[in-house]
Amino acid sequence: MSLLDHTHDPAARSWVDSANAAGTDFPLQNLPLAIFRPPQGTSKQFRGGVAIGDQVLDLAGVAAAGLLQGAAQQAANAAAGTTLNGLCGQGPAAWRALRHGLFALLKDDAPEPTRAALRPLLSPQGRVDYALPVRVGNYTDFYTSIHHARNTGRVMRPDVGIDLVNPNFRSMPIAYHGRASSVVLSGHPVRRPKGQMMPPGAPAAVFGPTRRLDYELELGVLIGRGNALGEPIALAEAEDQVFGIVLLNDWSARDIQAFEMPPLGPFQAKNFATSISPWVVTLAALAPFRAAWVPDAGNPPLLPYLDDAGVRAQGALDITLEAWLQAPGTEALRLSRTSFRHQSWTVPQMIAHHTVGGCNLQPGDLLGSGTISGPEPSEAGTMIEITHGGRQPLTLPDGSQRSWLEDGDTLVLRGWCERAGAARIGFGECRGVVLPAA
Q1: Which domains does the chain have, with CATH numbers?
Q2: CB 433 within 8 A of CB 410
Q3: Catalytic one among 8, 100, 147, 148?
Q4: How high is the pLDDT of residue 430?
Q5: Is 8 a catalytic residue?
Q6: pTM for the full model?
Q7: Which residues have a Cβ under 8 Å from the Cβ of 111 and sit 6 or more positions away?
Q8: Per-residue CA distances from 419 to 1, 12, 23, 30, 342 (Å)
């Protein structure tokens, strides 16, 4: 488990003034990583960067300047490339050294020669281009919210009752292997997919653009060093494999999904796009926002490989998440606000279960948390829950209605952590606009 240290001091301030602004996502205590190219529109090579206030610091420049020492310098060298995979593979000691080194360089007591060397390496975040932070070799999407499971069960089978949670959900984190090639960065447009659907009462399937395009409010977990084939990762050691966390939107075509899922699960309904945010927030930055994890009521006893005292004590993360819908010509509407602490399974349990059979994770692999929905209606993380499968459309600020996402709509996810006695830690945003079917 990540421990608190001097980098979490809420009173610490940066000589980069914007990092000290109230409500900033990126104070000195955060230091998330991304891949960027300065300035926007140039032919310069992509490289690693760290957010500080409204600026991004060029890690390739930091590495070349030799402003760090030892493990921190080695980590900066690894972060200077066109992806962060090399840094992922270095492990927790290197990540910690880089965090501590950058914290010292950017803190308000850094000497003036250090500041002078760093100022030319800062660029406004709004004037740079971003790329995927890692080369995603493998993508696995989990299903870990009992509230989402119950809500969708009520939508799909309102005649059965309130609890349609499958027995396997209560025993282990459920998942399916997604499509890594269609993981895209925030801002990349999403083309409405086509596929086969079975309309109610139709004698046969029809083909065409999905009529029930949805989003899923999730977090994405980026894997660090990984494990060898056939060697499971123990639950107590699973967090050492987490390089960082991003926002994730698992776009979904619900009508295609409903027809294709039996008996093998999602395929074309999910493989057309998965959006992630550019900034990777480390577990170290999230250390002040740990929470106890409690199994769902009614679950069977945990099997030993999914049970650990440390996970029970502080395995959950209290990350506030919001989804916003911006329809053309009208004001943005907040669809939901929830917290990651509501999930039925923790990140370490997802990793332990993923590898218990011998599956090998690799640096830069992406795990989706599954839809993050809370116990209240206002905490639902999908349109299928919010509109009860389209039967109860929501009303937009201009009076129009939405049952599902329409062409031209922009879906925006945001996330942050906030509590008394700690600096606010933000994730930025993950957005995507819906384009018409090809």
Answers
A1: 6-131 (2.30.30.230), 139-435 (3.90.850.10)
A2: yes
A3: 148
A4: 98
A5: no
A6: 0.96
A7: none
A8: 19, 16, 12, 14, 17
